[in-house]
């Protein structure tokens, strides 16, 4: 990495440093390559470590860098598109669903979710936990809340929990006729559990996609899917659902 001297500029020094670092990432580093440590980078560019951290944090937020436990700061691969469509709808767990069932338990949902599901404040619902992996890397986790009224015929299922139970609940849910689904997206930060599942640091930026599945005029299921913001970008169109697209193999850009 070069030793470009920072000049007096109107924008904050860390922002100018971010531009210099971006040029270096484009010309000198490949996807997955580990950057030098903060001390060496700060000395090389003649800036305080606090300034360097601000620039690195901004590049991480923009998806150019990833901070990985036990590894360090690496150059991130191209972002994958999260498509939030409006025309095609499908229940989770269908044949084209890329999510993997992890577990299913009966739990009382948070009060705000119970209100959306029109269940009692102390009424347990099926909580299906799923994950999504791309190229061997976790990119999203999901909690899917399903009221008992949406899946009434589970008496013959022996598995009390686990992936088998999750798949059985989703199969039963698909018996309903889906009228429509509604998506909402917001930027958030990873909590301790989400960070562990997504192999990120707590507080890392995430995209939270909330989906309401409507059947028989009511909310039959509610999904809260958390995507790594450093690896995903939003795309809007009529492709439907949430889909991850891979970009071509290339150096970071």
UniProtKB/TrEMBL annotation:
Residues 11-78 form the HTH gntR-type domain. Keywords: DNA-binding, Transcription, Transcription regulation. Gene3D superfamilies: Chorismate lyase-like (3.40.1410.10), Winged helix-like DNA-binding domain superfamily/Winged helix DNA-binding domain (1.10.10.10). Pfam families: GntR, UTRA. SUPFAM superfamilies: Chorismate lyase-like (SSF64288), Winged helix' DNA-binding domain (SSF46785). This is GntR family transcriptional regulator.
